[in-house]
Amino acid sequence: MLSSRWKNMEVNILIMLFFGIFSFLLTFVFTKLGTIVLSGDGSFHFSRVEELYDNFRNGKLTFIASRTFSSTGVGTFLFYPSILLYPWVILRLIFSPVTSFYVWYGLMLFITMCVAYYSMWLFDKDRVRATIFGILYTIFPYHIHLGIAHLVVGEFLAYTFIPLFFIGLYYCLVDRKKWYLLGIGWTLILYSHIVSAYITLLGAIAISIIYMIIDTKSIKRVMINLSKNIILVTLLSSFVLIPFVTDFIGAGIKAPNGAIFGYLGSFQEIFLESVKNATDTNRSVGVFAIFTTIVGCYFVRKSRVEEKIAYGLGVFILLCTSTIFPWRLFNNTIIGRVLGAIQFPYRLNTYVGFFLMVTFSLILSKLIHSISNRNAKVLLISGIMIFLIASYYGSLTDLFVKIHESQGNLLGKNTKLAKIIPNEAIIKNSNYHNIFDYSILYGEIDYYPSVSFNNLQEGNDITAEVNPKINSILSHRVIIGGKEKVKIPKVASNYIEYNVKADKKEKIDIPVLAYKRTKVMLNGKNVGYTASSRGTVMVDGEKGNNKISVTYQPSKLLYVGIIVSFITWIGLLIGLIFSKKRNVN
Fold it and tell me: How far apart are CA 40 and CA 152, in angstroms?
């Protein structure tokens, strides 16, 4: 028994080594080029990492944005999980800015392969299939679109843990063992991206209800397992959930939004984009997914029912990403309000990738296992791996073209306040810090107080014509007795300071957002403040010089949440170690 256990460990180590080499092959070209095309959500996430990096070097946690996001003190770090960005932050301490991003990207590809491999191994106990699934799931075009083509970092991180979530759900439904995988998977998704956590939660509820209707004898077991996971998730993610309870609910803060059910495409458009196997569009699920959709029913017809369900779910969700599913019929309905948080149906491509790659890995593993000659089998596997690498780089052709054709158009320094960074800005180490001179493309004004907007319907428009209050905040306009002056603040970790001279005692409104736990000092003394009509800090100024400094004092519950989460992780790890030892004995 012990010999068998060590042999399994050796095999797993070799597979991890293979994944490491494969991840290196997928990323070294980008590291060599040393160029980032900063598109989509890139400026948002690079700003997050820069703030975390500066504060980490000073031994500080990050609560509000002081150096980035136009130094407005926006609570992005309170309401958007950042914990899983710290590996990137640590790499930023070691490597240059551009290299650290690509090394982190490669690290996340490696972790995704490992998570997908482990999840498939628990599902089928076939190492060949598990290895293939790990790679197929990792290089799925929508994943690459998120990670490197469009830089949707939060969703990219969440994608990593989707297999763990679904294998955990599977065990919760059919068995009592490893029920905790569901809670661990969902917690890690919650650490990454709130919307992805919401979508997976809806999926888990729907699947669980259907399963319990079909198998009524399972209701008690499933409810017990799900209840245990709810407790586990609450403990593990308490430090993420607490700021929403203490600072967000009832505070009049505008949550990020977008067009309800926007960017819908016809199935014809999705099919054509997928056949091109490109990653520059969010509509592409890749040629492998289309192939699996067409032929998968033949390969799963004699397989166990779980394989058929996975294939069926993959095809159904793929259809749901298109106009075949009547999304807009649900506008202004209860269903629409529940599903509206998804915002963009193309986000379901993550789940298309998971379920259809489960089926495609079955197809490839059957092909490999059908060959009895060892040399021929090794040759086939090698050929598949080489083809997958070629497919991955082929899907990124448009990105390479942008990098090569735009080398002369580097992002320059910005001298104009409230100017949005250009989409697809070209970034190298030499101009990396120019990113933070601009207002970011998407997400700059997420989590602003609702009163800060003149026009909530045009919440992403920061121009003085549409949202003058927003524009004045981003432009560092201090308002003294109704008159505006542009002042550049002094900043430090979670600290923003304005020095304002007043001719008499009057109200001073500084462009720093006011939250429930915002703390203000005037000339070194703690003072009360009010939220101005634009949602910023306003104090009763004194005649002469006024040094107004703003910080954020988190709730003690937040620190309690951090401790509870840490202790729960440690307890869970110790419990798993002792459980394995008992099983071995």
Answer: 7
Contact 91, 580 (CB under 8 A): no
Residue type, 12: N
Please compute, for residue 187, the number of CA atoms within 13 A of its CA located in the half-sphere on the CB side.
Answer: 22
How far, in Å, CA of 10 to CA of 181, rounded? 24
**98 phi, psi to nearest 5 deg:** -70, -45
Q: At 231, is the secondary structure helix, strand, or coil?
A: helix
pLDDT digits (tens, 9 = 90+) for 81-137: 999 999 999 999 999 999 999 999 999 999 999 999 999 999 999 999 999 999 999
Edge-first strand order for the sheet with 495-502 is 490-492, 495-502, 544-552, 518-522, 525-527
- Torsion 34-90-76-150 (CA) sign: positive
Task: For 315, list phi and psi in degrees, rounded to 5.
Answer: -65, -45
Helical ranges in 340-407 per DSSP H? 349-369, 374-395, 397-405
Residue 170, both tokens: 């599977």
User: Do residues 529 and 518 touch, judged by C-beta distance below 8 A?
Assistant: yes
Is the distance from CB of 514 to CB of 535 less than 8 angstroms?
yes
- Residue 498 bridge partners (DSSP): 548
Task: Tell me the per-residue pLDDT of 420-457, one tens digit each, with 9 for 90 and over.
Answer: 999 999 999 999 999 999 999 998 999 999 999 988 77
Percentage above 70 pLDDT, the chain: 98
Task: Assess whether pLDDT exceeds 80 at residue 157.
Answer: yes
Contact 162, 189 (CB under 8 A): yes
- As a whole number, mean pLDDT of residues 400-411 equals 87
Q: What is the helix (H) or strand (E) element at residue 181, kind and residue range?
A: helix 180-192
| DSSP H or E segment with residue 205 | helix 194-214
What amino acid is encoded at 347 in this protein?
R
Q: If 0-12 CB within 10 Å is exposed, 13-18 middle and 19+ buried, where does residue 451 land?
A: middle
Distance CA 118, CA 193 (A): 22
Q: Using the CB atoms, write b or e for 84-106: b if 16+ within 10 Å.
A: bbeebbebbeebebbbbbbbbbb
Q: Where are the beta strands (DSSP E) in 44-101?
A: none
Given this model, what pLDDT does residue 431 score? 94
Q: What is the pLDDT averaged over residues 534-561?
A: 95
Displacement of CA 4 from its chain's centroid (Å):
39
Task: Indicate the pLDDT class of residue 254, thresholds 50, 70 and 90.
Answer: confident
**Helix 97-124 with 2-33: angle, nearest 10 deg:** 150
The residue type of 523 is: N
What would the two tokens of residue 454 be?
A: 């003149």
